[in-house]
Amino acid sequence: MIFAYLLIIFGVLLCGTPLFAKKSIPPKVVDLVSTFGAAFLFAVCFLHLVPHVFENEHESLFFALRPGIWVLAGFLIQLLLEILTRGVEHGHNHAQCCAESEEHHHHHVHPITGLLIGLSLHSFMEGMPLVTASGQLQAGLLTGIVLHNIPIALVLVTLFLNNGYSVAKSYLLLLVFAVMTPLGSLFNHFMIAPAGNFEQPVMGLVVGILLHVSISILFNHDVGKKSKLKFFLIVLAFVLAYLIPDCH
To answer: 36 near 144, Cβ under 8 Å?
Structure first.
């Protein structure tokens, strides 16, 4: 668990470092990484997470509700979170939009504040099923989260720099985002899991969130020269997700 949490935290911090060093990363590279991560998350949902949503459903405290209800609820939750995040979890760069809103921050909530709140809630929930009630690590979900955080970290650093934040403040805010996934996992493992069999609804909510994010990225790609490469990356992500062992 500790290794998994450190991997997530340092993965986010290291991804943002090149931008602090004034080294730009080509948008097409970010786009390809985002596509690969989304395809991997999509495959992980169906290969590793969805079976947990529908297994032992009659042992759940919420057996009267169909398991799919929790998936749909997670989908809707992500729609609401995007009011705050503006699609940053999709790898979209709204740096210019936020920078333009900076001059109006004394009249409205600072765009970075709302964005961080939305992303923090997204990451917190995303990490909740990272460790099962029996203490087993979801290796596929861990890998998917690490990949998924790469474009998010890059967009966040771009936003921080465009808004004139210092390197120290930017790293601190990036760290806040990075620790939310481990906090979600710890909260579920020590607070929710001991209180009862909530694993099914928690997993269902997260599957809905991840499906919304991954589908939004995969269906928001250009049809051009990179289509063949993206198709190859998607197939590769599916194969790798299949090869990762399940927590059982």
So the answer is: no
